[in-house]
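We were asked to recover a plausible sequence for a given structure. The inputs and outputs are reproduced exactly as logged, with field labels preserved.

PROBLEM: sequence recovery
POSITIONS: 187
GIVEN STRUCTURE:
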């Protein structure tokens, strides 16, 4: 494999982590999984005032720290496969923050983004809204119980828009609506 750093992207429930696990095993690669623990996530899904901004900044700084660790060492030791790209943080920011919060967010993002490594290849996984919802519900994660159907649809549209315009690195797009990396390893 000629790629040293591959990122798998897509909306919640599309199968990113499952594909990362399969690829890492197949190519004897290291895997980097996004840290999804966030003390503000429950409040965000409950629509508590200010929670979206707190949640977004927490994710932004966690993603930055994790990407910095990649840049400082293991990135050049062997192939790494990651279940997100740093730039995806903007998808959630534009979806969830109001204008004044977005202004502050953009300033911080602009300082951090030039310091993160970029993958050699991005694999963008897509799926229909109904498929995403079914997968989200089936994994029964506490912090995902409050996700609405409307939010999943809006997020899915935002991801498709973002990656339709993405040109930073080579991009491979896969529709996973009929593929299930969790239930069927042959897929």
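RECOVERED SEQUENCE:
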């Amino acid at each position: 494999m000629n790629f040293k750093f591959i990122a798998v992207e897509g909306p919640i429930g599309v199968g990113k982590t499952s594909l990362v696990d399969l690829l890492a095993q197949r190519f004897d690669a290291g895997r980097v999984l996004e840290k999804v623990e966030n003390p503000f996530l429950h409040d965000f899904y409950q629509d508590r005032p200010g929670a979206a901004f707190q949640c977004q900044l927490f994710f932004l700084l966690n993603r930055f720290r994790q990407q910095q660790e990649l840049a400082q060492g293991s990135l050049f030791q062997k192939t790494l496969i990651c279940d997100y790209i740093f730039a995806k943080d903007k998808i959630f920011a534009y979806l969830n923050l109001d204008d004044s919060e977005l202004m502050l967010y953009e300033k911080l993002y602009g300082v951090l983004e030039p310091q993160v490594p970029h993958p050699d290849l991005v694999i963008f996984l897509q799926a229909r809204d109904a498929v995403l919802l079914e997968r989200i519900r089936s994994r029964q994660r506490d912090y995902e119980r409050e996700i609405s159907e409307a939010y999943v649809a809006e997020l899915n549209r935002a991801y498709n828009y973002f990656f339709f315009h993405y040109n930073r690195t080579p991009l491979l797009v896969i529709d996973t609506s009929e593929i299930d990396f969790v239930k069927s390893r042959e897929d």
